[in-house]
């Protein structure tokens, strides 16, 4: 792994750690807003049933609250995690570019699915996440498809230069 890749991994990891701490802190405000527990303490309700006290709230629900009402740091978390995944995927799959294109397209498809889960949210934070998921998904699928089309164009032009274009069984 090159020095540039290591620096990118370190910087993206530091951004992730910082934004996670900040989002966790901002999301801890959920403990002071009992009327929001029913709608935001999703994981606590799954694990513990009805949330009746601030001590029933799981830490992961802090991130849900921050995402809904203070989305800056959760968005930085999303971007840094996405960058880390793509960077690790690139480093691992750079010897096989075709698999990396599938990898990018798969991640993009996952983001498109995630955008569907938050598409109908009334909060500004989840609307921002909807747009972010949608844009990242379209971008990654587009990059993967463009890579495949670019390979196909290069292969076709090489074949035409060599005079080896085959037109089905009639050639």
Report on this model:
- The structure is a single chain.
- With 171 residues, the chain is mostly helical.
- It has two domains: 1-74, no CATH class; 96-171.
- It has seven helices and no strands.
- The longest helix is centred in the C-terminal third of the chain and has 39 residues, at 124-162.
- The N and C termini lie far apart (47 Å).
- It holds the Pfam family DUF4306.
- This is YjdJ family protein.
Compute the average pLDDT.
Answer: 91
Helix content: over 70%
- Number of helical runs? 7
* Sheet of most strands: none
N-to-C SSE string, H for helix and E for strand: HHHHHHH
Instruction: Give the strand tally.
Output: 0
SS class: mainly alpha
Protein name: YjdJ family protein
Keywords: Membrane, Transmembrane, Transmembrane helix
Transmembrane segments: 73-93, 100-118, 124-149
InterPro entries: DUF4306 (IPR025440)
């Amino acid at each position: 792994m090159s020095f540039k890749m290591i620096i990118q991994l370190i910087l993206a990891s530091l951004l992730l750690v910082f934004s996670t701490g900040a989002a966790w802190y901002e999301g801890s405000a959920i403990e002071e807003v009992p009327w929001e527990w029913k709608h935001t303490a999703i994981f606590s309700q799954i694990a513990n049933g009805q949330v009746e006290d601030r001590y029933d709230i799981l830490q992961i629900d802090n991130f849900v609250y921050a995402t809904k009402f203070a989305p800056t740091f959760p968005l930085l978390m999303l971007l840094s995690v996405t960058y880390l995944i793509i960077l690790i995927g690139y480093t691992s799959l750079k010897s096989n570019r075709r698999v990396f294109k599938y990898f990018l397209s798969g991640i993009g498809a996952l983001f498109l699915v995630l955008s569907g889960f938050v598409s109908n949210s009334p909060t500004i934070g989840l609307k921002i996440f909807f747009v972010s998921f949608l844009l990242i998904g379209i971008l990654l699928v587009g990059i993967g498809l463009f890579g495949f089309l670019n390979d196909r164009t290069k292969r076709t032009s090489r074949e035409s230069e060599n005079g080896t274009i085959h037109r089905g069984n009639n050639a």
